[in-house]
């Protein structure tokens, strides 16, 4: 087995790649990274100085691959499985990449902003930045709701990279800024994602760490039981 994923089971961007790996039953070794441990954080930064998780390494090809969208494209090209996460057709691939960017930039990143602001010391909070993040999330929820009225999955009829991106973004996004009441198509799509074995497995592995999530008190009870 040549693939190793450096990750943490609670980290939302790690969920994105884990879903891709589980969709295709791709064999890999998991290496848990605790960025709160300065020595481990320094070792991880030697792998990828930006210090962001996850990172995939492939000893068979001597490759270190950061950035979730690129990691998933790497897996799709070099370790293909039954689920083609980026279509060969150029126009369909562009649609997948668009919705991958959409969920990363307009749902995942603002969700992170809201979560990480709670970890700041008192006096260092960014009230305006958090308000802007909530506004971006609500704009994105509205756009996604409209889109998902006509699409089963994030970029059409089949599961793709874009759904790997959407799943953790909506999981944590829906806790910090709920979307279900005003966005029925988005809510129904999220339920479709939750039915997937890959997503359930990722959440089961995250569950022992849920107590570390700053908004754990707002987590729906069902997430502790699934
Ligand atoms: N654009 C990156 C984002 C990765 C990211 O933000 N990872 C978070 C964990 S969910 C992280 O490593 N945070 C640690 C930090 O910022 O110090 C990707 O897609 O891989």
Give the SSE string. Answer: EHEHEEHHHHHH
> Which CATH class of the domain at 90-196 applies here?
Mainly Alpha
The CATH topology name of the domain at 90-196 reads Glutathione S-transferase Yfyf (Class Pi), Chain A, domain 2
Rg result: 17 Å
Distance between the termini: 30 Å
Record field, number of beta strands: 4
Largest sheet: 4 strands, mixed
Q: Which consecutive residue ranges, at least 5 long each, have pLDDT under 50?
A: none
- The percentage helix is 40-55%
Structural class: alpha+beta
Strand order of the largest sheet: 2-1-3-4
Bound molecules: glutathione
CATH architecture of the domain at 90-196: Up-down Bundle
Mean pLDDT value = 97
Strand content: 5-15%
So how many helices?
A: 8
Shape descriptor: globular
Written description of the protein model:
With 226 residues, the protein is α+β, with helices and mostly antiparallel strands. The chain has a domain at 90-196: Up-down Bundle (Glutathione S-transferase Yfyf (Class Pi), Chain A, domain 2), CATH 1.20.1050.10. The chain has 8 helices and 4 strands. The chain has helices at residues 12-23, 38-47, 68-78, 90-117, 127-148, 161-176, 184-194, 197-206, and strands at residues 3-7, 29-32, 55-58, 63-66. Strands 2-1-3-4 form a 4-stranded mixed β-sheet, with helices on one face. Strand 3 and strand 4 form a beta hairpin. Helix 1 packs parallel to helix 3, helix 1 (12-23) packs antiparallel against helix 6 and helix 4 (90-117) packs parallel to helix 6. The longest helix is centred in the middle third of the chain and has 28 residues, at 90-117. It is globular and about 45 Å long. The two termini are 30 Å apart.
């Amino acid at each position: 087995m040549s693939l190793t994923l450096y990750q943490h089971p609670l980290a939302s961007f790690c969920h994105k790649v884990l879903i891709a790996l589980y969709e295709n039953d791709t064999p890999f070794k998991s290496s848990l990274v605790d960025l709160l441990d300065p020595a481990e954080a320094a070792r991880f930064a030697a792998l990828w100085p930006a210090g962001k998780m996850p990172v995939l390494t492939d000893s068979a090809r001597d490759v270190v691959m950061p950035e979730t969208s690129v990691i998933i494209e790497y897996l799709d090209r070099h370790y293909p499985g039954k689920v083609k996460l980026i279509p060969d057709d150029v126009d369909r691939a562009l649609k997948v990449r668009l919705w991958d960017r959409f969920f990363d930039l307009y749902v995942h990143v603002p969700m992170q902003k809201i979560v990480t602001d709670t970890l700041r010391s008192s006096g260092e909070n960014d009230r305006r930045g958090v308000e802007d993040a909530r506004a971006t999330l609500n704009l994105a929820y509205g756009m996604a709701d409209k889109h998902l009225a006509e699409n089963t999955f994030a970029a059409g009829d089949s599961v793709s990279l874009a759904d790997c991106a959407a799943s953790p973004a909506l999981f944590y996004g829906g806790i910090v800024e709920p979307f279900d009441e005003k966005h029925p198509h988005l809510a129904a799509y999220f339920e479709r994602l939750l039915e997937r074995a890959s997503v359930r497995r990722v959440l089961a592995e995250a569950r022992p760490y849920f107590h570390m999530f700053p908004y754990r008190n707002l987590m729906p009870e069902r997430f502790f039981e699934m």
